[in-house]
């Protein structure tokens, strides 16, 4: 895929929100162990926010890999204007170290956040992201049910678009420059 393949298409390919969402006041702990103020740290940047977990067998790693691949085909100037924030839905197993190592496999600039499940679930609920407490199965495995949408907050702090599981790399790469420019 080349950037030339992305030019000329009008409008974003993500799912338009009928009711845009303001950036929530998320305050959790980063992989460095320090408090992370989501609004302040991502102010003026296109921010892609995803709730998931590192032991996920399918959607979470695929989504992070697809976003990383899309960012990889964009000019460095665009890439520098994007924050990708991953909030764990399995904070008992996703310690800061686990979260940091897992995200670094995709892109070392990706931000991982953790905190109490109750706090994380409250933030997810503000955005309409389904999140259920992790449940241990009889075989010892853990099931973590969570929404699969990536919420895209434009540099003005408003989300007009979400991306669902299975969004293609080319669609992220097409939309990111438009979202940076405030075109939704």
What order do the helices and strands come in, and which of them pair?
Elements lengths: L14 E8 L4 E4 L4 E3 H4 L4 E7 L6 H14 L3 H4 L2 E7 L7 H9 L6 E4 L2 H10 L8 E2 L5 E2 L6 E4 L4 E6 L5 H12 L4
Parallel strand pairs: 4-5, 5-6
Antiparallel strand pairs: 1-10, 2-3, 2-6, 4-9, 7-8, 9-10
Helix pairs in contact: 2-6
Radius of gyration equals 16 Å
Provide the CATH topology.
Glutaredoxin
CATH class categorisation: Alpha Beta
Count of DSSP strands: 10
Largest sheet: 8 strands, mixed
What is the total number of structural domains? 1
Structure description:
The chain has 184 residues and is an alpha+beta fold. It has one domain (18-180): Glutaredoxin, CATH 3.40.30. It is 29% helix and 26% strand. It contains six helices and ten strands. It has helices spanning 38-41, 59-72, 76-79, 96-104, 117-126, 169-180, and strands spanning 15-22, 27-30, 35-37, 46-52, 82-88, 111-114, 135-136, 142-143, 150-153, 158-163. The strands form two sheets. An eight-stranded mixed β-sheet has the order 1-10-9-4-5-6-2-3, with helices on both faces. A two-stranded antiparallel sheet has the order 7-8. Helix 2 crosses helix 6 (169-180). The longest helix is centred in the middle third of the chain and has 14 residues, at 59-72. The radius of gyration is 16 Å and the shape is globular. The two termini are 23 Å apart. Mean pLDDT is 92; it is low at 1-9.
